[in-house]
Amino acid sequence: MQERYVHTHARWFAKDAESVLERLQTDPDAGLSTEQVDERLLEFGPNQLPAAKITHALIRFFSHFYDILIYILFVCAFVTLILGHYADTVVILAVAVINAAIGYFQENKAEKALNDIRSLLSPRASVIRDGARIEVDAAALTIGDIVYLAPGDKMPADLRLFQTDNLRVEESALTGEAVPAEKQTRVIAPETVLGDRSNMAYCGTTVSAGTGYGVVVDIGADTEIGRIRQLIAEVGDTTTPLIRQMASFGKTVSIVIIGIAALVYLFGHFFRSYGPSELLLSTIGLAIAAIPEGLPAILSIILAIGVQNMARRNAIVRNLPSVETLGSVSVICSDKTGTLTKNEMTVKNLVVHGAGFAVTGSGYAPTGEIHHGDGPAPMGEGSLLRRLLICFKHCNDASLSQEVKNTWTVQGDPTEGALLTVYEKAGLNVKLPSRVATLPFDSEYKYMATLADGGDEKTLYIKGAPDRLLAMADQEMTADGPVPLMREHWEKAVANLAAQGKRVLGAAMKVGASCQTTVTHEDLHEGVVFLGLAGIVDPPREEVVDSIAVCRAAGIRVKMITGDHADTARAIGKELGIGDGEKALTGNELDDMTDEQFYAAASKYDIFARTSPEHKLKLVKALQAHGSICAMTGDGVNDAPALRRADVGVAMGIKGTEVTKDAAEIVLADDNFSTIAAAVEEGRRVYDNLKKTILFILPTNGAESFLIIAGILFGTMIPLTPVQILWVNMVTSVTISLALAFEPAEPGIMARSPRDAAEPLLSRYFLWRIFFVSVMIGGLTLALSVWLFKLRYPEAEVRTITLQTIVLCQAFHLFNSRSIRQPAHALDFLGNRAVFAVCGLMALLQVAVVYLPFMNRVFGTVPLGPTGWLAPILLGAAVFFVVEGEKSIMRRLDARRGVSGQ
What we know:
Blueprint: H1 17-23, H2 34-44, H3 57-62, H4 68-82, H5 86-107, E1 124-129, E2 132-137, E3 146-149, E4 158-170, H6 172-175, E5 181-182, E6 200-201, E7 206-218, H7 224-235, H8 241-271, H9 276-290, H10 295-312, E8 315-317, H11 322-327, E9 331-334, H12 336-340, E10 346-352, E11 355-359, E12 370-372, E13 375-376, H13 384-394, E14 399-404, E15 407-411, H14 414-426, E16 434-439, E17 447-453, E18 458-464, H15 466-472, E19 475-478, E20 481-484, H16 487-499, E21 503-512, E22 529-537, H17 544-553, E23 557-561, H18 566-576, E24 585-586, H19 587-591, H20 595-604, E25 607-609, H21 613-625, E26 630-634, H22 640-645, E27 648-652, H23 658-663, E28 666-668, H24 674-714, H25 722-736, H26 764-790, H27 795-817, H28 834-851, H29 853-859, H30 867-897
Parallel strand pairs: 9-23, 9-26, 19-22, 23-25, 24-25, 26-27, 27-28
Antiparallel strand pairs: 1-2, 1-3, 3-7, 4-5, 4-6, 4-7, 8-28, 10-11, 10-22, 11-12, 12-13, 14-15, 16-17, 17-18, 18-21, 19-20, 21-22
Helix pairs in contact: 4-5, 4-9, 5-10, 5-25, 8-9, 9-24, 9-25, 10-24, 13-14, 17-24, 20-21, 24-25, 24-26, 24-27, 25-27, 25-28, 26-27, 26-30, 27-28, 27-30, 28-29
């Protein structure tokens, strides 16, 4: 070989097989020589996909310190170390490390990396080299190798076929088409889309029937599978709305903290008589007080609880922030085959002379019935339906088996499996005549025939494309026997079923000679009697219609993006409630659009058919450019790049490929689309609870900051030390606030429109509420501490009571925070038992910090008498009733404005 070709642009399917073999300098009969193989392996490398880089565990751990708020904590720890306050240093660093550890251990539950796509490569391949057929490792294949294909073989590389014998390949994971593709060797047009390239066999697909030979034209990273993997790698990681909001929140809080701390330090230095060390320590206390250092930990815990709840609903979350992202989704883009549909071909209609029948049930499980009008179909001896079903059963090479309870699989062609299932649904207890001979399905003739020996006579059964069978037949079967064929009537029946997106198969028969032992095409030139039709479809999943309706009520638009044919996509879409059953765009139509037209079409249309992985990826990008938060669901390799690009990718866990699962953030363990609707509800609940948590935590920081600022401004004792401030923050953040993570979803959560991804984490009302509660708790606590000083209470006791006051005020405020707007008494009071559990834990911690000697030494507290607890409890109750009053006023204002609050 003189040069290395740019294989991904070679369009091998648009070249005739002879020229391909000539260009690749290979002999179709003898294959490559050993010398040629060695040269090409050296030039092109092994037939393998490059491994993905693995991030070291330490790097992943330290990445959780990448937060500006944590950086401020480190600065505070360094300053306390310089000042010799080692206990403060240890506590501050411990808080930072605990936060990082929680995040690391939650994220570390993710599955293996994207390079599992390599599992799609066939481990062995049958090739011709030096004139002999041998078995080799797939990795040892090279450009120009001649590969032999047989049923069950997985394609080891991308092949240009040059010889086929009724070859059919299952390509649903790559193209989205449920029916195995028939293969041939003729040249096809250069603009042909991936799903219609009938002279190619692509890496990772599987031979379902027939045999063939192909020449290797692309290996490893140059294959379609490799190209999809490259698309996945190029997409990169996308940030979630929550991550963007938290990053913005962290920067805003940091700037405010640094600015206020600097101003307070300057004021204390120039206008008060504090010593430099004391003032610096107080300023550090202010910074620590203002930093919600427990927020990253509580965020991880809230998301982790959401992960566990989703797991109970059969949604496995691989990336923590994706829990919340689903709650903000405004568009769900879904593959059709295997996601919206079962990827199990099912007979839904049967047609015989003068009658049509509906078939219930879906999938390969033989549960269902055949109906004629309102009653059961007649199955008596000699009935037309009985004859039709026996033909479909006899002229069939597939088999049905039950692997586990309620799970049936087909060995062989899926369409033939559907015919076996409908036969079983009929409940015919018939001993079929033995098969004497078979005329296999041929892609040129488009039918299959079998010769049955019934004892007294022999019968030829024929099954295939209706147009071929109608052209062969001159009669049709009726209850009274054969009559002249009404060809136009049957053609209309075929067109009617096809318009519904169904694949149509015909059945016919012929009485054979008693001495006949073989069957040929010539035997079918005359005497053929047409029996009827079967309408076959990959049916929608039963639960999907209701789930799409739930999504629509929640303001979420569902779009179908499939590699299947447009007619099929439109019919399935109409049945599911996606689109109007008329409007759909194909991949070729998308290719002819300008960027502006494509951008507009992505929003306007809901059904996209005959799409490639590039189309799916580009559509997701266009929807994101519209400002949509986009989820993408799928199960095939062709869905992986779009899943990777989407704000949240959702893969099918049972029938999904490993590639798809690795590209997704969420995996549905039950392959149930309705699980997505449940996950959206869980995501909204998580976000609501996160907002409640922030509304609860920040007033603690605000109240502490208020106390320190007031102390410096008025030149009095600082009411709390830095270590006491950290204690209060960690008790309220990691214990009390944890209860809000378990709050159930509020009524009407799925009747709300998706939230705007651009909305800030802190709305104007949130800022008001945080300021209001902060000033109230801080003011009441400051007034109490000043009063205690006037009564000559010791400094340590004042600080102990001050610490208890802030914590108990927040404990009462917890009950306010269970709903942002609704009154505390309107909630299911015992619905969240975690509230009472954490309040009990908080009480134990507060008793320990007051009465355990070693904690007295670390935190500078002293034991309190009964009267020392009275004021904190009374002030906490006052906070509760005042906030409930404020919520009542806000509800009245909401009612006047016609706005509903949570």
